[in-house]
Amino acid sequence: MVGKVLLIRPKNTYNYNNYPSLGLISVATALKQKGYQVKIINCAFYEDYKERIMEQINDVDFVGITMLTAEVPNAYEILEMIKSKSDVAIVAGGWHCTLFPDQVMGSGMVDYVITGEGEKHIGIVADAIAGKRKLATTVFPKKIIDLNSLPLVDYAIDSDIEKFISNYLTDKLAQSASQPMRWLPYESSRGCPSLCTFCINVVTGNTNYRQKKANKVIDEIAQIVKRFDLTHVKIVDDNFFVDVMRARVICQGIIDRKLNITWDAECRCDYFNEKMLNDQTLTLARQAGLIQLTVGIESGSTHTLNLMKKGITLQQAENAIKKCDQHGIIGRASFILEIPGESAKDIKKTVKFINRLRRYKKFTCGAGTFRPYPKCELTVRLIEDGMLVEPVNLSDWADKKNMDMYTSAEYIRPWQINGVYSEAAALYINMESEARLGNHQISNWSDRFTNSFFIFLAKIRNRIMWYGFAWEKVLYKDFLLNFYRKRQEDEKKINA
Predict the structure, then answer these.
(1) First-last CA distance in the chain
(2) For the segment 225-239, what is each residue's pLDDT rounded down to a tens digit?
């Protein structure tokens, strides 16, 4: 008899649901290889997701659930529901489980917790549950996997994959990509060797960079482009260009295979030098279809960059944006305001630096107030100084106040120097960059006009660096809410 497994992706608190969960699909692929029948339920797509879950659980060997921290509230609700009505085994994984395995296990609502990469552990757990065997451990420790031993993830296991493929991207790259845009995320490496004090990779030991071989990457990209008729591939590696020679081989392979796609990736600012991302490499990458590079600049203050242990200079940051612009590549940067230890002067330096970078036509960015990612160095300091309290159990993480404190991108927090200014600055920087809603996403002329008006106002406020009497801020948030609510309603009608 073939075993059956139900995998659940909870709803994100902030409705960030337009990316498929590669981790969940990768685990599903590993289970399928072992002969299991796997079904994935994306709760964000179905109003009746609870009924769908309950219809499935009596016919499966176990239920697997993934958890980002921003998914914990809905995950907790789902776990309570399942445990109240069924004795089916539950396996939990994902970033939040990796950060707080004992809390998740201590909730009494799961049977096994898998931390870190789950492709190998999930098979052991599945076989034990199917064979009704008791395992010696209930919390599986982090395991580093040879990525070259893994098969290409079977995206099609997720029956909703077409919804993701044809879904919108807020990235400005969508303006440069072929239309209609069809895209999927792809992972060619894991880990990042950088030691930034705000990053989850450092906390979870994910600084051990490992990669798939270049030929494997080329073959896999070619396969998913052909199978799903893609026009764009979003490479979601934390740092794609660590091994620049491998990156060059991949670029040449995309050209040689005539894949005719666009793609984007992430890299560090200090890689734009004569040995790594030089003009030759950027020219090759552009020929291969690269249309956007995301670089983590994070601040326009040298003092703040030192607090972050970014290991870059402002000169390197501007050079990265300048080089992208020269090669017709969108330079997309991220910025964080209110890093603990910053001054009001540091924060204004960041806004001023962003204004400076606006001179480059291909530049865009996103900004947010510092989110205290659990366990990172800066977060630990805040807890030690009594400025932040870490939830002690899974139910506390499901509380909206704790969720916003730790994960909201634009939020006023107790330790901030000028939270009102910074929260508003982040909003208007994002508004100008069309990071929340771009005109390329809008077909209705009146909505496009309204959005353009907000962008115009944001430009003025950002240039004079004044965010007082922000009467249009509430109007903009209402406009966004109504726009995406209407889009969801239209999508439901199409899928009905």
Answers:
(1) 34
(2) 999 999 999 999 999
